[in-house]
Amino acid sequence: LGAGSNTLIRDTGVKGAVIKLGSKFSSIKLLEKDKIEVGSATLDRKVSDFAQDNNISELEFLSCIPGSIGGAVIMNSGCYGSDISKILSSIKVIDEKGVEKEIKKDEIKFYYRGTDLPENYIILSAILKGSISSKEIIERKQKELIKKKKESQPSQIKTGGSTFKNNNDKKAWMLIKEAGCDNLSVGDAIISEKHCNFFVNKGKAKSSDIEALINKVRKEVLVKTGVSLELEIKIIGNEK
Length: 240
Hints:
Elements: E1 7-9, E2 28-32, E3 35-39, H1 44-53, E4 56-57, H2 69-74, E5 78-79, E6 82-83, E7 88-94, E8 100-104, E9 110-111, E10 114-115, E11 122-129, E12 131-132, H3 135-152, E13 159-162, H4 172-178, E14 185-186, E15 189-191, E16 198-201, H5 207-225, E17 234-236
Parallel strand pairs: 1-17
Antiparallel strand pairs: 2-3, 3-11, 4-12, 5-6, 7-8, 7-11, 9-10, 13-16, 14-15, 15-16
């Protein structure tokens, strides 16, 4: 488990051990003038800020992603035309037997919000490569992206981030709105007025309420638009 920002854990919890990498895996090191090594538990925003301090461009989008680098690699996180696959050089992983290995970028198949990395791999660190630019230009771009996000997406409230992946033809929020689902709710689980692909806990919603709302929206969108929405959020835990 990374920062848990795009995750819904069921009310029954997880039967088994949950591994969450701690502060020892949160580090950033400058390798070359345009290349950094980042521990997988490092928050995306910290990576973006470090890159800015060292005049490294192309990592500005990370300032808008609420998560850690390990999760960002697994999900090929991105926004505003950028994603991890464009800046990744390699990763170090460990498997369930404790064997460490390095994997180069060209050995990984990236697709929209995902990769073909085996589920038994835990990412330990990543090497990211940008391009050299001026601090002022990087800072301006970073601020513009953060402003854009704050204006279009809910912030400082309880939400699991983008609920559904965007469809090839239409964005998920457009399909939800088109199906008339933007005002649906289940208990305290509601849909954000600011961006209807964000599902919000108004206060006392259980995970089961959020999941019921997800299923309700999915069903309505399929009936009204013929599109089967695919989850971006990860639902973890036993159903019963």
